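Intended use. Records like the one below are meant for learning the mapping from a protein sequence to its folded structure. Do not use them to infer anything beyond what is encoded.
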Amino acid sequence: MPAFKSILVDVDATATAHPALERAIRLARSIGATLTVTDVVTVPPHARHYLPPALEEDIVRERRQQLARVADAVSDVRAESKLLLGRPATVLIQEVLRSNHDLLIRSHARELAASGPKPFGAVDMELLRKCPCPVLLTRHGSPASRPQIVAAVNASTDEAEEQALNETIVEVALLVASRLEANPPRLLQAWVPFGEKMIRSHSADDQFATYVEGARQRAASDLTRLARSFEGRLAETQFTLRRGEPAEVIPEFVVAEGIDLVVMGTVARAGLAGMLIGNTAERVLRKLPCSVLTVKPSGFVSPVRLDPS
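Structure written out for the chain above:
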């Protein structure tokens, strides 16, 4: 399980507020982690054609100084600044690989200029697909003093990889809840009877009701079995089963229960390692109105590579 001892936090050094940094500092203080505060300067190829080299150097120098001031203002945590140059998602992932960071934090959709609620941006989605360490995307606004955290699991899976991922999701939710002095994390599982529409059309009402209840009981048993594997560490945790597809159930639960943070897994099942988030995860992420912390299966390999030195 990630220890969260080396946190990379991506900020906009030119901004007046840094919500991702605030959350990173709070977590780093409680865990004893170090912080690397970073920003990314990207000069588009078409602009570089017109940009004198000396002016580009001035832009980079000024941003590096701004970033250093942001990092220097951090107290009670060991923090350093590191300016990155290039495509944001690529250079952030390369920094994770180069320095063995075990958590990446950034304000979600910070590259989007629209006001009000915003979808996850292109950089967010690329990080969620390809970054090898957990990624925490924080919503804007002041963090809750005792955040409400939910761990979204699929305890009914037969896949060993996803079973292990469930355990990691719960472990991470427990860790974050304890370090942020949050309420005990809640476990949420969406369930849908297999072949529901087909079986309904070929069954009497009482037969179909029996079938659905059997599916619910199996889902409840699977969730209980997952909880028991933690040997009492989930004694104060509330377990919730909601009938429906995860892409609908999880966002609805978040809104109804005032959830501040969802911890969930991203499972890639493409021919190329790490190129795609599982379809379910991607649909959920696009609808979430809160912060999200995603973890990947053990053995995940990022398609991003370090440049030869």
